[in-house]
Amino acid sequence: MTNLPLRGVRVLDLTRVLAGPLCTMMLGDLGAEVIKVERPGGGDDTRGWGPPFAEDGQSAYFRSVNRNKRSIALELSDEGDRALLLSLLAAADVLVENFPKGSLARYGLDKEQLLAQNPRLIWCTLSGFGPASDRPGYDFVVQAEAGWMAITGEPEGAPMKCGVALADVLAGKDAAIAILAALSGRERGTPVERALHISLNHSAMAALVNVAQNTLVSGAEAGRWGNAHPNLVPYQLFQAADAPIVLAVGTDAQWVAAATALHLPEFSADPALATNAGRVMHRERVVAALASQIATGAAADWIARLEAARVPCGRVRSVREALADVPASPVTGVASAVGGTVRFPPPALDADGETIRGFGWSL
To answer: What is the 3 state secondary structure string of 194-227?
Structure first.
């Protein structure tokens, strides 16, 4: 993308760890000018979250969500640093922060007052559990309390978290979406409407989507299905003779094609299994037959037959294998998923402090 849509938009990033930095990185990828404000000495907590660390000492974790930003270290208890921050804020379009409740106000950075003073400013707060709570927002805790761990893992196993800090990731993306919407309509926005609040907990609850709706409609508690699906059959992992594969049948036509490709003609012709509802009702019989059949052949052979029949399927790959399919760098991470570009790598702590102190936004 050469005509970056957020070119000229100024974003002041007062966040740390994952959700906030991911949000501001996405804005930076789309062309926004992002200044990351960090505490002197240590900076963003994730600078020390490792190993692995790169040769220059940056942690892989920090690198994953901090490209396309400039860094300045400011001590908010220092009057001069606070004055500099206020001057940057006066010319900013967006402020993103995840400070504990009330912390910025104690430094004289009053949200309501600053929004009233700057009619173009959008202020986005990220928290763990919403504006009424001062609980720290950690992804693991949110995954537990938002119901995710109750539905993740094997049915007879222990509750399990996702392998990625997905509540953080979703909250960061939600924040970016909310900011883009606010930028689009800010000429009509009041100070209250330009004050956004995204919580990890709400983002995680919204991400329950069909699982939440299943519970709301049925009144029954959701459970763990392992690698199976509560609403679709067959839609799970199967063990081939040499490796696991996944089969994801989403339509009745795909079911007929899958049964045919797997040499199970009696199943493709069975009227009791013609609809997904019927297959869900006869889940154990369908899964047992498919598992027995798939175990007799090699994963590559089954995948070739299923793909030829246009049945969604795949093999379980490692992260290294998956990364080979996309532009990715050990310095700047995985390429933007929304069409942005990498203009510069994640900064060292206070790498641009002298320039920003001298020239402000005119880097």
So the answer is: CEEEEEHHHHHHHCCHHHHHHHHHHCCCCCCCCC
